[in-house]
Write a structure and sequence with these properties.
The chain contains 3 helices and 2 strands, in the order E-H-H-E-H. By secondary structure, the chain is mainly α. It has 2 domains: 1-47, no CATH class; 57-105. A two-stranded antiparallel ribbon has the order 1-2. It is flat and about 80 Å long. It starts with a strand and ends with a helix.
Amino acid sequence: MYKSFDETDFKKFGKVYNYKNRSAGYYKHNLTDNAHPESRTWLTKMARLYRSKGTAAEYMHQSFRVCIVQVILLEVVVLLYCMFFSLIVLFHSFVFDFAVVVLKW
């Protein structure tokens, strides 16, 4: 079962959960105008079930490898981010030192 909401649903949520004109995050501005949603409960049924040909251990091993790659990529991004800002700081200090030398000259 899946429930979809329209703007009137979010207004009802806001009346219940908003406190002293502070939004609890249950409002979507112009939702009906932009998306044309339906307030409806959708009944679902399973058409097919996918089953892996591998074992659970193989699945866990593959998942672990994906996690390791994601961690390594994140570390590379953080390292590049730190290097970029270090270069900016060095550049600014160089420009400042150069300006001091030129002004003293």
